[in-house]
Design brief:
The chain is an alpha/beta fold. It contains six helices and 13 strands. It has one domain.
Length: 299
C-alpha cells in the first residue's frame, strides 16, 4: 500500500468501522444489576435512594418529600487502550493482522462496564454507602412507621463465596453504571506526527470515561453462607419482610440469583431441579433466574 493521505483516510475508516461494529456487538451483563446514568459532569451527585415513602391518602394539603440532594457522589474515571502499528506493515499490506487487534480493543471497551460494576459489587462488603454502613450490612438505619430509627439488614452473614438475591424488576437498581463519555477510537496517523518520525509507526487508541457505584441497597440481599435451599429460603423471606422509609412495604420480588462459577451447581439444583436431595418436589424450582458471573470471586 502506498502511504499517502487517501490511503490513510481509508485505513482510518476501516479501523473505525471495525471498532464501532464490535463495540455495539458485545453482549454485556452489568445491566442485570445496574441502572445506567448518563453523566454530564466530572462528579455526579445522587440523592439518598431510601427516602421515598409509600403513597398516602390525600387529606388536606400534599405532604412533600424532599430528598437530600447530596446523598452520595460518584466520580468519573478515565480509561484508555492504545496499539502501535508499524508503517512497514501497512506498506506491506499486513493490515489484516491488526484488524482483530482493533476489534479486541473495542471488545474490552464494551466490557469495561461489566468489569467495573461486578468489581464494585464485591467491594460492598468492605465499603460504606451513604448511610455510613457497608453496602452489605445488617444495620442499615431506616426511619420506621413511628418516626424512630430502625435497623434493616441486606446481609445474611458468613465467610464463604458470596451469592446475591436481587429484585431486578424496577427502574432503580442496586448498582449504578455512570456513563460520562462513550468509548471512541482516535488515531495518530499524520505523517508529521512524532510517533511517525521517531518510531516509524502509527497509533490508534481508545478512550472511555465512566464509573460504577452503589445504588439502592434495599434491592439486593447478599450471603456468604453456603448456598443451600434453607439459606435461599431465608434470604427470600428476609427480602419479603424488608421495610423502607417510614415503614413502606417494599413489595420486593427476588427474581434473580447471582452466583460465581463455583456455585453454579448449587444454584441449578435449587432453581432447576424437579426434586430436592430427599426426592421431594423442589418448591423453589423456577422461583428466580440464575445468572452465573465469571467475574465474581470464587472463594
Amino acid at each position: 500500500m502506498d502511504i499517502n493521505r487517501a490511503s490513510l483516510l481509508a485505513l482510518n475508516t476501516a479501523f473505525t468501522t471495525a471498532f464501532n461494529t464490535r463495540l455495539t456487538g458485545v453482549e454485556t451483563t452489568y445491566g442485570r444489576i445496574a441502572m445506567t446514568v448518563n453523566s454530564t459532569t466530572r462528579n455526579q451527585t445522587y440523592p439518598k435512594l431510601s427516602e421515598l415513602g409509600p403513597m398516602r391518602e390525600w387529606i388536606g394539603e400534599r405532604y412533600i418529600e424532599r430528598l437530600e440532594k447530596d446523598g452520595f457522589t460518584i466520580a468519573n474515571r478515565k480509561f484508555e487502550k492504545a496499539v502501535a502499528v508499524s508503517i512497514d506493515d501497512i506498506s506491506d499490506d499486513q493490515i489484516g493482522l491488526y484488524t482483530p487487534i482493533i476489534q479486541d480493543m473495542a471488545q474490552v471497551a464494551a466490557e469495561l462496564p461489566d468489569d467495573l460494576v461486578w468489581e464494585r459489587l464485591e467491594q460492598g462488603f468492605t465499603t460504606e454507602h451513604y448511610d455510613g454502613q457497608m453496602f452489605f450490612d445488617t444495620d442499615h438505619p431506616v426511619v420506621g412507621e413511628t418516626g424512630n430509627e430502625v435497623s434493616v439488614s441486606n446481609f445474611q452473614g458468613g465467610t464463604g463465596a458470596a451469592w446475591y438475591l436481587i429484585d431486578d424488576s424496577r427502574a432503580i437498581k442496586p448498582m449504578i453504571f455512570q456513563d460520562r463519555e462513550a468509548a471512541r477510537i482516535t488515531s495518530k496517523t499524520n505523517l508529521n506526527d512524532d510517533n511517525v518520525f521517531h518510531q516509524d509507526e502509527f497509533i490508534w487508541g481508545a478512550k472511555r470515561r465512566c464509573a460504577a457505584g452503589f445504588g439502592a441497597w434495599q434491592l439486593i440481599y447478599a450471603s456468604r453462607q453456603p448456598l443451600t435451599a434453607a439459606n435461599y429460603e431465608a434470604a427470600r423471606a428476609a427480602m419479603g419482610a424488608m421495610r423502607g422509609h417510614k415503614g413502606r412495604k417494599l413489595n420486593l420480588r427476588p427474581r434473580l440469583l447471582v452466583v460465581p462459577s463455583t456455585l453454579e451447581g448449587a444454584g441449578r439444583e435449587i432453581l432447576m431441579a424437579e426434586r430436592n436431595a430427599a426426592g421431594a418436589t423442589n418448591v423453589w424450582r423456577n422461583s428466580a433466574d440464575l445468572h452465573v458471573e465469571s467475574r465474581l470471586t470464587l472463594i
